[in-house]
C-alpha cells in the first residue's frame, strides 16, 4: 500500500481535486461560446476578443459576487446543482442592467474537503446557468482549506466580464420625469437576505427544512432553495427592441435601495404596492418574525427581480416581450420631477392580501 504523501496527510487531497475536474469537464465545455480557446485544465482561460473589433467603442464591464448564506441551505438539503443559478444570477445580471452582454465567467469554490461529485454538481449548475445567460464558463478554481473550514463546508463566488457599446450604456442620466417603472417578477428570494430568513425561520421559529408549509405549497427547504431567475438573455433581447433608460437589479437592500441607484438627482419615483402580491415566502418571513414591513422591504426583493425605467411608449412592447419569455411584468410606478432634490424612491399603498 502506497504511503500517504505529506500534503494528503495535511488534509489536501490532490487526487480528489483532479477527479472533480474530470467530472466537470463536460458540463463546462457545454457552456462554451465560439470565442473560447482551449479546454479546461490550463493555468488561464482564453477568450478570442477579435469580435470586439466590430464595436465602435467597446466598453468592458465586470462584476464579482457570491451566493452568500444560501449555501447553508444547499448543504443542509444535500442539493448542489441549483446554487449555480444563484451565482450566475448575481453576476451576469449586474452586467446586463448596464446594457452589457456577458461574455465569460470564472468561478471560485472554497471547501473544507473536496468531494468530487459535490464539486462537479456545483460546477454543473454554474455551467448550465452560464448557458442560460449566454456566457461561457471560462475557468475557475477549487481550493481545499482543511483546518480553516469544516470538511462539509463550502462557499461559492465568481466574476464575470461583459461588453457594451459606449453609446448604448444604460444609466441614470437617461431617466426622464415622465418615465414609468416596469417590474419583472422574481422567482423567489433569489440569493439575498438569507441571514435574515434563516434567523427568523430556522433559529427563532425552530422550523425544519423538511417542514411542509401550506402557504408555500412545498417544503420550507425547497422554497428557500428556489434558484435565482437569470434574466440576461431575455433582458438583452428586450433592450434591443424597445427604448429603456435604466435598469436596476433588485438584490440585497431591497427594491427602493437598488432602484434609487439608477435614477438621477431631481427625479423621484413613487411605487405602488397594490400593483403586485409578493410570493408567500415574503409575507411568511414578515409574519413569523413579526417584522415591520420597512425591515423586510429594506432586505428582501419582495417579488421583484428587475425594475426597468423606460418611457411610457415602450411599456406595451416591453410587457409583451417579457411575458412571451415567461417573465411576468407589470407597471409598478412612475417618475416625477423634483428639481433640486436628491434622487428618491418611495413605496405607497398596500399589497393585495396583506
Q: Mind explaining what this structure looks like?
A:
By secondary structure, the chain is of the alpha+beta class. The protein has two domains: 6-168, PurM-like, N-terminal domain (60s Ribosomal Protein L30, Chain: A, 2-Layer Sandwich), CATH 3.30.1330.10; 172-348, Phosphoribosyl-aminoimidazole Synthetase, Chain A, domain 2, CATH 3.90.650.10. The protein is 33% helix and 24% strand. The chain is built from twelve helices and 14 strands. Strands 10-12-7-13-11-14 form a six-stranded mixed beta sheet. It has a four-stranded mixed beta sheet with strand order 3-6-4-5, with helices on one face. β4 (101-111), α5 (116-133) and β5 form a beta-alpha-beta unit.
Short description:
With 354 residues, the chain is α+β, with helices and mostly antiparallel strands. The protein has two domains: 163 residues, 2-Layer Sandwich (60s Ribosomal Protein L30, Chain: A), CATH 3.30.1330.10; 177 residues, Alpha-Beta Complex (Phosphoribosyl-aminoimidazole Synthetase, Chain A, domain 2).
Estimated radius of gyration = 22 Å
How many β-strand runs? 14
How many distinct domains? 2
Low-pLDDT stretches are none
GO molecular function: ATP binding; phosphoribosylamine-glycine ligase activity; phosphoribosylformylglycinamidine cyclo-ligase activity
Family: Belongs to the AIR synthase family.
GO biological process, one term: 'de novo' IMP biosynthetic process
Keywords: ATP-binding, Cytoplasm, Ligase, Nucleotide-binding, Purine biosynthesis
Amino acid at each position: 500500500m502506497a504511503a500517504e504523501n505529506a500534503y494528503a496527510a495535511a488534509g489536501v487531497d490532490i487526487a480528489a481535486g483532479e477527479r472533480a475536474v474530470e467530472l466537470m469537464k463536460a458540463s463546462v465545455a457545454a457552456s462554451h461560446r465560439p470565442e473560447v480557446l482551449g479546454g479546461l485544465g490550463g493555468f488561464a482561460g482564453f477568450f478570442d476578443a477579435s469580435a470586439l473589433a466590430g464595436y465602435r467603442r467597446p466598453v468592458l464591464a465586470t462584476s464579482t459576487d457570491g451566493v452568500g448564506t444560501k449555501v447553508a441551505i444547499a448543504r443542509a438539503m444535500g442539493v448542489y446543482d441549483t446554487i449555480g443559478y444563484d451565482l450566475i444570477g448575481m453576476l451576469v445580471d449586474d452586467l446586463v442592467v448596464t446594457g452589457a452582454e456577458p461574455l465569460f465567467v470564472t468561478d471560485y469554490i472554497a471547501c473544507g474537503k473536496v468531494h468530487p461529485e459535490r464539486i462537479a454538481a456545483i460546477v454543473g449548475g454554474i455551467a448550465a446557468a452560464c448557458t442560460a445567460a449566454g456566457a461561457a464558463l471560462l475557468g475557475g478554481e477549487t481550493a481545499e482549506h482543511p483546518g480553516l473550514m469544516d470538511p462539509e463546508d463550502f462557499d461559492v463566488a465568481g466574476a464575470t466580464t461583459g461588453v457594451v457599446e459606449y453609446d448604448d450604456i444604460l444609466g441614470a442620466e437617461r431617466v426622464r420625469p415622465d418615465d414609468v417603472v416596469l417590474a419583472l417578477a422574481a422567482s423567489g428570494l433569489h440569493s439575498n437576505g438569507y441571514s435574515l430568513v434563516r434567523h427568523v425561520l430556522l433559529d427563532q421559529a425552530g422550523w425544519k427544512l423538511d417542514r411542509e408549509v401550506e402557504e408555500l405549497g412545498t417544503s420550507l427547504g425547497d422554497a428557500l432553495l428556489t434558484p435565482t431567475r437569470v434574466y440576461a438573455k431575455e433582458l438583452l433581447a428586450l433592450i434591443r427592441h424597445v427604448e429603456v433608460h435604466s435598469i436596476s437589479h433588485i438584490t440585497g437592500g431591497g427594491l427602493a435601495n437598488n432602484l434609487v441607484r439608477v435614477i438621477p438627482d431631481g427625479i423621484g419615483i413613487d411605487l405602488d404596492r397594490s400593483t403586485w402580491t409578493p410570493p408567500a415566502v415574503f409575507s411568511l418571513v414578515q409574519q413569523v418574525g413579526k417584522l415591520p414591513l420597512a425591515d423586510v422591504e429594506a432586505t428582501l426583493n419582495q417579488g421583484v427581480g428587475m425594475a426597468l425605467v423606460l418611457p411610457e411608449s415602450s411599456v406595451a412592447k416591453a410587457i409583451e416581450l417579457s411575458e412571451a419569455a415567461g417573465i411576468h411584468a407589470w407597471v409598478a410606478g412612475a417618475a416625477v420631477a423634483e428639481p433640486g432634490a436628491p434622487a428618491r424612491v418611495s413605496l405607497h399603498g398596500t399589497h393585495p392580501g396583506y
